[in-house]
Write the structure tokens for this entry.
Amino acid sequence: MILDLFLQILSTLKDTLLDVLPILSIILVFQLFIIRKPIPNVKKVGFGFFYVLLGLTLFLLGLEKALFPIGKMMAEQLTSINFLNSSGSLVDSLTWVDYGWVYAFAAAIGFSTTIAEPSLMSVALKAEEVSGGAIHSTSLRISVAIGVAIGISLGSYRIVVGHPIHYYIISGYIVVVIQTFFCPKLIIPLAYDSGGVTTSTVTVPLVAALGLGLASTIPGRSPLIDGFGLIAFASLFPIIAVMAYAQLTQFKTHDKTKGR
Amino acid sequence: MYQQLSVFYKSFVGSFKDLLPIILVIAFFQFVVLQQPIPNISDILIGLILVVLGLTFFIYGLEMSLFPIGESMAHAFAKKGSIGWLLTFAFCLGFGTTVAEPSLIAVAKEAANVAATGGIIEKSVESQASYANGLRYTVAFSVGIAIVLGVLRIIRAWPIQYLILGGYVLVVIMTMFAPEWIIGIAYDSGGVTTSTITVPLVTALGVGLASSIKGRNPMIDGFGLIAFASLTPMIFVMIYGMVLS
């Protein structure tokens, strides 16, 4: 079994070498031919690249052994007939309400991974700085986490009922557009960025596997049409949440100055 | 040596913290809600250890090699040099970092699996690999375009909201023409692209650029590059789907 693992590591290593090659050659070409300076600390950088390679290899292997199976397993178990039947409904008469635990799980994963997301922490701190302290970084993180939780559970509701994804995402865009007109200007670039930032390397595969698992176990859904899209929800709702939070604080301070 | 160990330890704790909320939530649902044993627990445990170790080495290695060089390069190109080279560098940076992005590699592979099962492409190792690579290079190309656009925005001080709104309109239009099976993965690719490698390097470029141009506030003008990078892949992946079908 250890030999097996070792062989798997070797074969993944070969692929990851190709994955890091573009960025490696870009850096080398720009450094040597355009900036025309030798690379400082060549030895350290070399070791660094080796670690990047090794890390990427182990991570991808771990994804396939753990995160993907976990996401699919949770989806299967939460939608299995035995589990759903304990609430007393028949297979044919299952409605979206019966999948309550699926939404709860999706929301829990969304909230917990977002609140612990390091890149969101740095964005939140910057937002606090930009706003001159009017925006509180912890409250901002909580509101984004709530946004992602709502987003992913709404996304799994969509998979359960089988609606086309673009209706949801386009409605989300309309909300973003309306908010943009009323939101404090300083926060807009940060808010737009927060959508891409909140979905981390660990969360993405798990959430993708959850969606695919749901789409393949719920009767009448196909992974091809319904399986993807959860990550899109998870990157749209933070934008709405950040702007909503900024609007709320603006509203509050506005109220206070009026009252005086 | 000691210093290196402490950096390594820090990145280990960081990766573990990334995973911890997931483990807690899953444990809670397994034991309290589902009350079922986890099948293949040993395989999953090995996998989780590999994920933490892998992420640790990956981030540790990035901080030793790619981040310092990339950041100093981003600053150098932002401070001086022609716009032509700056834009070339911006494109290459977006393209190169996205190709190596771990979550994109994983999701593209899964998408190829699903497409093969769904009969969109042939169910063979080669055609799945070429679909996955096609998807990744499409996304990487569009992130390159996004960073170029974002850099131009910072230089010319275009207001970000109009560009993003324009992008949304394009996404809506493309959705009407794209085949149904690509829409979900296209929408997802926006969020997938921007994580471990891309965000720090691209942010360094944006902030360096905004702080080297007179009258720009790095706090405000430096941001927004990631926003473009999560929008353009949606458009280009839908084009990829249209080309394939």
In short: The longest helix of chain B spans residues 2-34.
